[in-house]
Each structure stands twice: as structure tokens, then as C-alpha cells.
Amino acid sequence: xxxxxxxxxxxxxxxxxxxxxxxxxxxxxxxxxxxxxxxxxxxxxxxxxxxxxxxxxxxxxxxxxxxxxxxxxxxxxxxxxxxxxxxxxxxxxxxxxxxxxxxxxxxxxxxxxxxxxxxxxxxxxxxxxxxxxxxxxxxxxxxxxxxxxxxxxxxxxxxxxxxxxxxxxxxxxxxxxxxxxxxxxxxxxxxxxxxxxxxxxxxxxxxxxxxxxxxxxxxxxxxxxxxxxxxxxxxxxxxxxxxxxxxxxxxxxxxxxxxxxxxxxxxxxxxxxxxxxxxxxxxxxxxxxxxxxxxxxxxxxxxxxxxxxxxxxxxxxxxxxxxxxxxxxxxxxxxxxxxxxxxxxxxxxxxxxxxxxxxxxxxxxxxxxxxxxxxxxxxxxxxxxxxxxxxxxxxxxxxxxxxxxxxxxxxxxxxxxxxxxxxxxxxxxxxxxxxxxxxxxxxxxxxxxxxxxxxxxxxxx
Length: 461
Fold this sequence. Notes:
The protein has helices spanning 14-21, 63-67, 93-106, 121-132, 148-156, 176-184, 205-212, 214-217, 232-235, 291-305, 310-317, 347-359, 380-393, 404-413, 427-431, 455-460; strands at residues 2-4, 24-27, 34-35, 46-47, 72-75, 85-88, 111-116, 138-140, 164-168, 188-191, 224-228, 244-249, 256-264, 269-276, 279-285, 328-331, 337-341, 366-371, 398-402, 420-424, 443-447. The protein is α/β, with parallel strands linked by helices and 461 residues long. Helix 3 packs across helix 5 (148-156). The protein is globular and about 70 Å long. Residues 116-303 form the Mur ligase central domain. It comes from Erythranthe guttata.
């Protein structure tokens, strides 16, 4: 069984909460789980109000909140005449959330897997959960809850009786992965890759690799570190003495080796062959994208290091279903084929998506609808130019661009002289016009950074 989300969230008593956050019980209340969102809070939960630069969720502590069945508040203050539970904390409530998460981690007796990487975290997390399901119950973080708040909420939502927890960890600057690893203390620590992402906060890929490598720094005897043998920047990272190192990739000598991969069934599936301890397994990933084979290899490295037979891993991964918005193949009622990859974008993941577009059998046009890739720093226009060059190399029939970065790159390369091109400054504008250019049999890739809201175009198609 795989659990994702707040179902069966652990119950906290008032004394446990007070101990975890170093707070004071002002008013007692029954035990309950913890929520930070009044929009989705359920009766019987404690409310922990977060405070940001432009908001303070303490303002939602009203009689209406108690009417929803909230049993108590964990915060700095409550409203007048608040008659429900109250555990008072001093200082940042975000720090209180992290303390609760660390307390939850201490009382979790299962195996916790933490993974990071520039691309592929959410897909690989889902594959790891699938591969481990054969030997025990698995909890995985919902969505892409991979920052300090998301990781903390993931730990709070993890049932204490599951055998495995799989959490992803993201970052945009140095020190963040170290903090997240300190909160969740993974037994298995995974680095998938290092690529061009969040370059606005880093001077080089080497700096990104150092930041990703923070996940390894506090590994202790008995922990397992799973590393991409094909990525030199990952292989250059130091692993603490006494910690088991497991390698995955195409490189000879990898503990789990990707022997071969090929697109089959018109490019809609990937036949994958893996090898481990002289045993091989062949299976089919029922989703487009050759890059998924390496994600599967990483998942197999984690699972086999925890005792899952390779054959069972292959059987499990043959049931993989794409995470929504990530290499998700959809067919509209009017016969247009969509590769819905709108959740996020980086140069590496966009190149992978364009390769998937090229591999899928097409009876109409191949169309790439691309939104700007954000947070790439001073080299952003050059990186957008490289993606457009890849569109030319793979002979895309129509390129529709959203955002000022892709427009600048297209103007620099004079792409409009070599390929049919459309442009809009925002996804909503393109969504209103794009259907005029699409017909039955077309294969359409839609991809862009989260902030470009490319899902509006998918919905329009």
C-alpha cells in the first residue's frame, strides 16, 4: 500500500505538542492531527498558523475557525474569547513546524528515503514508492512538497506504522538541503543529478553540486548513499566514512546498471533492461520518455539496497503511472495528442521532453508549446537559445513560445525564418488562439516553468 497525503495523519496530544515546540499549554484540548491551512482543515485538527513576509495566518483564528471543529491552536496568540485549546509558542511558527517535524521523525521507526536532484525528483520518488510497496507499506510526500514547509508537513503526515517514507528535497540556494536533511535524517540518501536549475543563485554547476551534496554531509554509519554514476559532478562528492555507497547508471561497474532502453509502441512506452549482481530484468515503463529509464534505474538502486529482488522491482515499475503534469500522455476528444509536462521546466527536462515529442509516432504535426524557464540567472537567454536550437534539430513543425525569454532567444537566432513560430507573453493569451493551429493527429508538447501557468493551454486544448 502506498499512502500520499494527510490520510491517517498521526495524532498529537497537547503535552506532545508542547514538548516538541518548547511551548506552553494555555488551554488543554483533545488529541488531533496538525494542519496549517484553514481552507482544508478538518474537525479534530490543531491549527498551526504560519507567518510570511506578506501574511500572518494568526488572522484566521476566529470563532468561525472553532466552528469548523478545530480543537486548538499552536501559535503566538489567539483571538479574544477563544475557548478551544491553545499551545503558545514564542518566535517563528515556521520554526515550531520544523520542531514538530523533527519530533515526528524521532518517533518514526521505519526507513526514510530522502532524494534530491536538479530534475526527476517527483517521478523517481513515485517509482521508489512503487518498487518498495512489494515489501511493506510506503508513505510518500504529496505533490512536490520539497521545501522546508513541505518536508515538515510531509513528516507530520507520515503514519508511524508504515515501513518506508519517501521524501523529496529541493533547494534554490546553499544550506537548504543541509537543513532539510537535518529535519528528516534519511536512512537512504539519493542524488539523482546536477543540472542547470536555480542558476540565479549559483555561479556554476559545481556550486549546485556542492549544495546538492549537503544531503550526504551528516550521513552516519548504517546509512546508504545512492549516487548517479553517470554524472561526474555527483561522483566528485565526498561520502562520509563508513557509509554504504550504491551507484546507478549506464556506467560499467554500477551497482544497478541501465543496460539498455528503447522507445516502443509508437514512442508511448519505454522498454528497459537493468542489471544487478549479474541478474538482469527486462520490463516496460508504460509512459513516453527515454529519460524515465534512468529514473527507474535510480529507484531500483534504492529498492535493491533495501532487499527487494530485481525481478520484483521490474514487475512493480511496469505498473508506473506518470505523476500528473509530468510526461503525461493525453488524447483529446478531437484527436489531438498531448504530452502534458507543464509542472516545471529546466534546460535538461525540456530537452528530454522534446526528445519524447520526437519519438512519438505522429500522423499530423509535431508541435512544441514552450513557456519560459525561470530562475536561470545571467545565462538564461543562452539556455533558451539552446532549447530552440534543439527544436530545429528535431524538426518540430510548429513552435509556440510563451514569455519574454524565449522571445529574446528566438529573435537572436532568427528562428522564425527557419520554422513556423507563434509567440505570446502569457499562457492565457496563447490559450485563446492555439486551437486554430492544431488538428486531429497532431502531437503537442506543453511545457514551461511553474510560474508560466502552462496548464491553461492544456485545458484550452
